[in-house]
Amino acid sequence: METYLLTLGFQDNDFTVHLLMNTLQKYFEEVQFIELSNREEVSRYRKLRLVVNADWNSLLNASKHLEKISAVFEIQIMDLSSGDTPSLCGIYRKQRNPTNYYRTAA
User: Fold this and answer.
1) pTM
2) Lower CB density within 10 Å: C or N end of the chain?
3) Residue 51, domain member (yes or no)
4) How many CA atoms lie within 13 A of 5 on its CB side?
């Protein structure tokens, strides 16, 4: 099990945070909430930062499930177990030409 920082960018509405947390609880025993912030001062675009302890395959499956939620436009995964500096090991951005990168299985 490794420790990861999971950052989700999403368009907020009345049930999005609840939907995201329910989805994450299906994949992880423990989800540690870090921060919920607005992308800009007046915006419905928000970022949710969480710390999860998981194996890579579980995290990858959860991320693939989150990609299908229409409100989610960005997923970033940082490995906190890799030493002093967190390393980027997964990113997804929903745009005209979607960015989809995940490290290979460890």
Assistant:
1) 0.85
2) C
3) yes
4) 14
